[in-house]
Specification:
203 residues, alpha+beta, Lysozyme, 3 domains, 3-stranded antiparallel β-sheet, two-stranded antiparallel sheet, 52% helix
């Protein structure tokens, strides 16, 4: 009889211990799932052209729920160029990334190539036939500067802007206009500035 009681006692003990372990394991899983569920990923589409910010906030268990934020910044300028060209259905859309990269290579702001193309040709919609020249440069009564592709045209125009304007301190729409479009009454500079503002504001 005593042996039976001992066996029952042992079974009862191990049963309670097993139940406690299961309860602890389940509780831990629920806690972890709750923690993960509270993580918030906030994507901010900034109008600023300089950065696109992604913020991740999570609970810090060791510091009594103190929130930590991790900010990851990525350049938003190529995205702004792409969205702008897509909005106006520009033939330059496939070259959005290249426009940004070539601007970086030559050391001038990303918006110049796009803004001048908008002013001169409605973003390449109105250009001399088979010219790929979206910027109206090298076009005069003696002839028209033509290229075999948008790729070659972009490289040529970027080099031209740097050499003939930015390297000489002509770095505003007004200063560029005096050489680029000297007969304008000011509307050329105002137009270019408007398009720069649209790009900078993400419109």
């Amino acid at each position: 009889m005593e042996k039976v009681i001992v066996k029952i006692g042992r079974l009862f003990f191990w049963g309670i211990l097993g139940g406690l372990l299961v309860a602890i394991a389940v509780g831990e899983c629920i806690y972890l799932m709750d923690s993960i569920g509270k993580n918030e990923f906030i994507y901010s589409n900034l109008s600023s052209s300089k950065s696109l910010t992604v913020a991740a906030e999570s609970n810090d268990v060791e510091n009594s729920g103190e929130i930590k934020s991790q900010i990851i910044k990525a350049d938003a300028r190529p995205v702004i160029i792409e969205k702008y060209l897509a909005k106006y259905k520009s033939p330059l859309l496939p070259y959005a990334r290249q426009i940004f990269e070539i601007s970086e290579t030559y050391g001038f702001d990303y918006y110049w190539i796009v803004a001048i193309a908008q002013q001169e040709s409605n973003l390449c919609k109105k250009i001399p036939e088979d010219s790929y020249n979206c910027w109206g440069y090298g076009i005069h009564k003696n002839g028209t500067l033509k290229f075999e592709s948008y790729d070659l045209a972009l490289k040529s125009f970027a080099e031209y802007l740097k050499r003939e304007y930015f390297d000489k301190g002509l770095n505003t729409p007004e200063l560029i206009m005096k050489k680029y479009c000297p007969h304008s009454d000011g509307s050329w500079a105002r137009g270019v500035q408007q398009f720069i503002d649209e790009l900078e504001e993400g419109r």
